[in-house]
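Lecture 7 notes: from sequence to structure.

We start with a single chain of 383 residues. Read the sequence below before looking at the structure.
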Amino acid sequence: MGESEPVRVLVVDDNAENRALARATLEDEGLAVQLAATGEEGLALFASAPADCVLLDIRMPGLDGIAVCRRLRELPGGADVPILFLTAQRDVDTFDRAHDAGGDDFLTKPFRPSELIARVGAATKLRRMAVERRELYDLVRAQRDDLLRLQLQKEQLVAFLVHDLKNPVNAIELHSQRVSRDPGGTERSRDAAARIQSEVRSLLRMIMNLLDLGRADEGRLAPARGRISLVELFDEVATAMRPRAHENRLVLSASANGAVVNAGEPGRGGLMVNADLDLLRRTIENLVDNAIRYAPEDTAIAVTAVTREGGVEIRVADAGLGVPPDQHARVFERFAQVGVEPARTSRGLGLAFCKLAVEAHGGRIWIEDGTPGAIFCIMLPDA
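Now the structure, written as tokens:
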């Protein structure tokens, strides 16, 4: 591969759409691309004109990617060509099989075009490094493989924990409901049951946030849209969150296009939005929960929605210390620490989930200065 020659990439994938996306992405970067729909065709193309990099699907009819990789390594020019495996299976066993077959990298489908460009570029650069610095290359590659395998193990552990936590948490909520409905219960026991239910709902939100953040990382966070009445949704949220607000001596109010929502007395129809009911409910609950944590006693939290040109704007306002303007973007990062106590901080995943959920709807989320306090704003498009 001379300095003036384009990098040659061989894409072997039985899915025509994947091949077309890879070709369009790589050719836009000036790379020369060859396509093969089967493992046999890929081997024949490489034997006639060895490529500088190979993108190889793992699951294919006939020769699968693992078998193709092993045969490629035996062809002239195939011993050191970078081979990047493409797979929808993100697990340790698949990674180990790809690694043992001689694969150099591991890219999960559906891939992002920017990630594909970066990984192909890194692979070809590493190959050039390997010519002069083989020992250093082997060390870097081993460290990267160890880190990736550790990351996959961590993701699997988190997934197992999240799924296994849902059952006992649901059981706690069920038993707390039985206590709260027990005709022989005392006022104290019913109050304790209500507090347990409030904390269980918070815990379930955190569990679902973790699940959805994982889905977003894999490109699988797809809203199931439907027509939603914001009056009814605000009523559900207010009913669930108002006891906790009262416990913190806060007044929680909600309105949609000026119509006041009374918790426990749901309206019908009114302002409508096209969205995923569960994702939008948890987004608003996370924003209200965030406001409750930082609003001072004897102040108000207001949830409002108004029709705007091109969509609906939802706002959650509190009278807390607010967020410094230069930190508005950082509060939506995972585990971000913003400011110094007693200023507002973000220690969890709630606001990160809100950003991903809103953007999955094609909307945007931002912060405005409430003077005092902060106003978290969401704009959801009509369609």
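The chain has three domains: 8-132, 152-217, 226-381. Keep this in mind for problem set 3.
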